[in-house]
């Protein structure tokens, strides 16, 4: 087991190095950061000096090596635009993204599972067909369109919820700014969470529906019916319980992509999280932020996959044995 | 955030209706009369607050609410006294500034001559992005606590033109905060002083979260008489156009800059909001590469068609500027005959554009030996100026009608500027660029956009195409030192006449400022696009 974990860990490090290298190769094509750092009147000589001082004239491999050595010590440099250490900048934006992501995942589960159960149990009713039609919208409409439609419908026309931002935040222990404890913070959370979670909700609903249809055909459900158990006990105590294993796996895996793909939602709602920070960094060619963010997201996916792998090993001894013979 | 009105009670559940009643009750009990908050959203972010870090309109405009220069600019952009009450030129090389008495910085320190001399040193120091505000070789002498002399090496009639955005800092504060040296883009750890501000202006920064939210409060100890009635200003960047407009329509913000031109009707149709428009000083122009012997993107080999003034004039006359104004800019553009805005040059009225005339353009091309036309590549930004890419597309189709085939390469500004400026080797044959002379003066145009340049950009750094006429250069050298206004205007006119005659560039238009505001907000929209809270009122 430990050998397996170490092997996976080394692989994970390799993946992160490759991600960092690829992103460094791409930075050559995103444009000139110096032009975003100075005013239009700044003479070319000053610009050249700045480029030299930022180390942008060095070969890519040298820049990359410098970045990796520093990143290994958790030093991601200073943001060109914000002139603050990238690590603290990302740390200050992380709570906003995490709160949004978790609330979206919660929303996706809380709405997706019941809808899935309902459409699985009563698949020919009008409501079930309605749910399926709505889910089609969730899958096919791009996130930014859903976001802007929600803003115009709910904020502009109805005037119920704030159109942008995070509302008032409360500082917890100096490190975590939370919007979960104020009324405006909670109100601000509703539209972005729906926007971000709609796709996952659809996914979960369809997954639960499919699993329910599968499980309801199995013998033990038939026996349960034959025994005269209540419909409630059969549907929720036996059928739903058995559909949840894949649902939990998928939800866990999707959490990573919710965080990573919060970029669009955060931009539409001007949500002050990491995704917005990243998108602004791309526009301004703020290489230190881009590099650190991409690495962080790679880390997130690698970690989630690592944990899932370990869990599978714990659950399924066949993988353990296979791993041992291979190693 | 104030409660928004609930408009559709029928659609609300009983619970929300009850809470709405509760809100109404709370509104009657809490006195609201005195809070006058201006909530402002801009497309870009406000980062470091060091006033010498970035020479950029928005940052300097925001800081104008907090800091002040020796001079200021009025609502019509004319120069008025700021921290200097008055000034005189003792001789062409010596200027004397009489400083305002009884002015205090936000931290309570007195403003005096030492602060001015400190600021003059700091703005010229390594790392400052505003070095051009003061001649590098000028000498600053303290006569007494409220008098400063500036000794110049060469006469400079426009010495104080840009001083409205050269902000005076407190020497003692800077020393205590460790901010004596300007925060430069290359600083590896600038420290917290870069995010604090201590000025003499009408507002103070209460809190500043770069890229998220900045809160301003009125400066109670300000020396001037407030023309605003604000108790608080909350600035939030909103990058996405749709969200910014929605925030205004929903009443979540009071003022936005900019409104995309296609959303102006939407803002005006809404009962509580309106668009505020006016010409901006920035002039959009097209430029030709005239420095290369052969254009890499053209099918003409062995020579450069743009070196022929007839070809340049043909391109000029093929462009229907009124169509661009009406169709693309939706009327919100002012076509101009020169590279400088009409407001910034008193003689602009003496010039007119070459008329739109495709037949004449074809004839000019035929005379120049390009009767069958030619092809050329064009570089264009797509996120820098108002509808920049659409303007370039229009130019492409207009030029196609006279036989010039243009291959457009429209890119985001980061990539565009990396290609067309000095670091990219001025790699463009035909381009679109916008320019505002920060000094409000023609010399800035002549030296930045029209001066003969070498490969590194020395001579005319933003003359991307390398237009070069020694007569214009000689005139520019005279203009910079000529102190007689009438004579100087004559020289400027001469230079512009040469440039117009040989179509050095194609000036297109001044784009328009479009702000969106709630109707209860009064604010002055100055043509330089600075958003100044000290002229804002919430009614």
UniProtKB/TrEMBL annotation, chain A:
Claim: Transmembrane is one of the keywords in the record: yes
What are the UniProt keywords, alphabetically? Cell membrane, Membrane, Transmembrane, Transmembrane helix, Transport
Q: Where is the ABC transmembrane type-1 domain?
A: 94-312
An example Gene Ontology CC term for this record: plasma membrane
What residues form the membrane-spanning segments? 12-30, 100-119, 131-154, 189-208, 244-269, 289-315
- Main location (coarse class): membrane
Pfam families xrefs: BPD_transp_1, BPD_transp_1_N
Q: Where in the cell?
A: Cell membrane
> GO biological process annotations for this chain's record?
transmembrane transport
Provide the membrane topology annotation.
Multi-pass membrane protein
Coiled-coil stretches:
none
The text of the family note is: Belongs to the binding-protein-dependent transport system permease family.
Can you name this protein? Dipeptide transport system permease protein DppB
Q: Which organism is it from?
A: Nitratireductor pacificus pht-3B
Automatic annotation (TrEMBL), chain B:
GO MF terms held by the record: peptide transmembrane transporter activity
Cite the CDD domains for this sequence. Answer: PBP2_NikA_DppA_OppA_like_2
The record, for InterPro entries, names:
Peptide/Ni-bd, SBP_5, SBP_5_dom
Q: Which keywords has UniProt assigned to this entry?
A: Signal, Transport
- Pfam families reported in the protein's UniProt record: SBP_bac_5
Would you indicate the residue range of the signal peptide? Answer: 1-35
Sorted alphabetically, the Gene Ontology BP terms of this entry are: peptide transport
On the tree of life, the source organism's domain of life is Bacteria
Q: Which GO terms describe its cellular component?
A: ATP-binding cassette (ABC) transporter complex; outer membrane-bounded periplasmic space
Q: List, for all copies, the residue spans of the domain called Solute-binding protein family.
A: 79-454
Q: Which family does it belong to?
A: Belongs to the bacterial solute-binding protein 5 family.
- PANTHER family on file: OLIGOPEPTIDE-BINDING PROTEIN APPA, PERIPLASMIC BINDING COMPONENT OF ABC TRANSPORTER
Q: What is the name attached to this protein's record?
A: Glutathione-binding protein GsiB
Native organism: Nitratireductor pacificus pht-3B
């Amino acid at each position: 087991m430990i050998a397996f974990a170490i092997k996976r860990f080394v692989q994970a490090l390799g993946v992160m190095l490759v991600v960092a290298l690829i992103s460094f190769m791409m930075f050559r094509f995103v444009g000139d950061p110096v032009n975003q750092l100075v005013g239009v009147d700044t003479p070319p000589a000053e610009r050249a000096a700045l480029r030299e001082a930022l180390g942008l004239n060095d070969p890519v491999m040298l820049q990359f090596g410098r970045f990796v050595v520093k990143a290994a010590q958790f030093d991601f440099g200073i943001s060109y635009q914000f002139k603050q250490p990238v690590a603290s900048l990302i740390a200050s934006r992380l709570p906003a993204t995490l709160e949004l992501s978790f609330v979206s995942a919660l929303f996706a589960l809380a709405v997706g599972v019941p809808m899935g159960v309902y459409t699985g149990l009563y698949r020919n009713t009008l409501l079930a067909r309605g749910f399926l039609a709505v889910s089609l919208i969730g899958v096919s409409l791009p996130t930014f369109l859903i976001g802007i439609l929600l803003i115009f419908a709910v904020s502009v026309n109805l005037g119920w919820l704030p159109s942008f931002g995070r509302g008032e935040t409360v500082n917890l222990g100096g490190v975590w700014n939370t919007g979960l404890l104020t009324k405006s913070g909670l109100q601000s959370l509703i539209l972005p969470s729906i926007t971000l979670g709609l796709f996952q909700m659809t996914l979960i609903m369809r997954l639960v529906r499919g699993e329910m249809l599968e499980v309801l055909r199995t013998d033990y459900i038939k026996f349960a019916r034959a025994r005269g158990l209540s419909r409630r006990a059969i549907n929720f105590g036996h059928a739903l319980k058995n559909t949840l294993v894949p649902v939990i796996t998928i939800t866990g895996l999707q959490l990573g992509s919710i965080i990573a793909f919060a970029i669009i939602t955060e931009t539409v709602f001007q949500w002050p999280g990491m995704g917005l920070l990243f998108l602004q960094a791309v526009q301004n060619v703020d290489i230190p932020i881009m590099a650190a963010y991409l690495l962080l997201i790679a880390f997130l996916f690698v970690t989630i996959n690592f944990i899932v792998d370990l869990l599978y090993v714990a659950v399924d001894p066949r993988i353990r044995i296979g791993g041992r013979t291979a190693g | 955030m104030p409660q928004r009105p609930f408009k559709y009670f029928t659609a609300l559940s009983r619970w929300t209706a009850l809470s709405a009643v509760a809100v109404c009750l709370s509104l009657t009990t809490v006195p609201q009369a005195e809070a006058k908050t201006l909530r402002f959203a801009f497309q870009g972010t406000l980062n470091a607050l060091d006033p010498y870090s970035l020479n950029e309109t928005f940052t300097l405009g925001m800081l104008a609410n907090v800091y002040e220069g020796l001079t200021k600019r009025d609502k019509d952009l004319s120069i008025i006294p700021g921290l200097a009450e008055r000034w005189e030129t003792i001789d062409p090389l010596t200027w004397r500034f009489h400083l305002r008495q009884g002015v205090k910085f936000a931290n309570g320190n007195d403003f005096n001559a030492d602060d001015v001399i400190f600021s003059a040193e700091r703005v010229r120091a390594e790392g400052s992005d505003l070095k051009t505000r003061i001649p590098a070789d000028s000498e600053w002498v303290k006569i007494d606590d409220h008098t400063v002399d500036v000794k110049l090496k060469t006469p400079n009639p426009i010495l104080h033109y840009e001083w409205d955005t050269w902000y005076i800092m407190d020497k003692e504060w800077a020393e205590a905060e460790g901010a004596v040296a300007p925060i430069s883009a290359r600083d590896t750890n600038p420290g917290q002083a870069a995010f604090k501000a201590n000025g003499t202006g009408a507002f103070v920064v209460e809190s500043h979260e770069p890229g998220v939210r900045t809160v301003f409060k009125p400066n109670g100890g300000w020396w001037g008489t407030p023309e605003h009635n604000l108790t608080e200003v909350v600035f939030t960047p909103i990058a996405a156009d749709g969200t910014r407009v929605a925030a205004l329509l929903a009443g979540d913000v009071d003022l936005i800059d900019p409104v995309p031109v296609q959303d102006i009707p939407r803002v005006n149709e809404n009962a509580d909001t309106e668009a505020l428009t006016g010409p901006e000083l920035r002039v959009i122009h097209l430029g030709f590469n005239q420095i290369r012997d052969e254009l890499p993107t053209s099918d003409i080999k062995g020579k450069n068609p743009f070196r022929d003034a007839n070809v340049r004039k043909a391109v000029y006359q093929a462009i229907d500027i009124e169509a661009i104004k009406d169709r693309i800019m939706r009327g919100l553009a002012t076509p101009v005959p020169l590279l400088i805005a009409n407001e910034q040059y008193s003689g602009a009225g003496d010039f007119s554009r070459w008329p739109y005339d495709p037949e004449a353009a074809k004839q000019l091309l035929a005379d120049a030996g390009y009767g069958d036309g030619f092809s050329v590549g064009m570089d264009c930004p797509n996120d820098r100026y108002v509808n920049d890419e659409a303007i370039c597309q229009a130019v492409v189709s207009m030029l196609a009608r006279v036989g010039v085939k243009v291959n457009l390469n429209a890119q985001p500004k980061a990539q565009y500027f990396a290609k067309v400026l000095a670091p990219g080797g001025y790699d463009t044959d035909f381009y679109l660029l916008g320019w505002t002379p920060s000094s409000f003066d023609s010399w800035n145009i002549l030296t930045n956009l029209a001066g003969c340049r070498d490969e590194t950009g020395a001579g005319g750094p933003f003359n991307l195409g390398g237009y070069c006429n020694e007569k214009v250069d000689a005139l520019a050298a005279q203009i910079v030192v000529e102190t007689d206004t009438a004579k100087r205007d004559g020289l400027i006119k001469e230079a512009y006449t040469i440039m117009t005659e040989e179509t050095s560039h194609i000036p297109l238009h001044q784009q328009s400022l479009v702000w969106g505001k709630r109707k209860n907000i009064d604010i002055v929209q100055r043509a330089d696009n600075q958003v100044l809270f000290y002229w804002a009122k919430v009614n």
